[in-house]
Structure formats: C-alpha cells, structure tokens
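Sanity check

After download, print the first record. It should look like this:
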Amino acid sequence: MESEPPNPACAITNIACYLNACIRSKRSLEETMERFPVKVAALAGLPADIASSCEEAMALESGLDGLAG
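Expected structure tokens:
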C-alpha cells in the first residue's frame, strides 16, 4: 500500500488538538513548548518559529475564565 503525502489541514488539526489538551490539562507553558510537535508544524508548512508565536498566544489571558461556571 502506497502512503499519501501529508495533509497540511490534518497537521494543523493535530497541533490544535495538542494545544487544547495542554490547556485543558493545565500543563505549564514551558512543558507545552518543550513538547511542541515541531515536525508536525513543518508538515503543515508553518514557519520554524511557530512555537514561539503559540507561546505568546497561550500566555495571554482570555478574560473569559470567570464566565465558566
């Protein structure tokens, strides 16, 4: 069976799931970035420094935390 080339949309979805899991499990920002799926990001065609951009976004407060109840 021949394998298909990686699908960038699937790679983006994988990264989104990874980041969501990290947020839901309250993983530290340092651990999240340490384990960031860099190879998956490359398959998606994202720039090599995408992890630092994600780090900046994850460090922001959403302001919505108090609404959950």
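If your output differs, re-run the checksum step. Summary of this record's structure: The mean pLDDT is 83.
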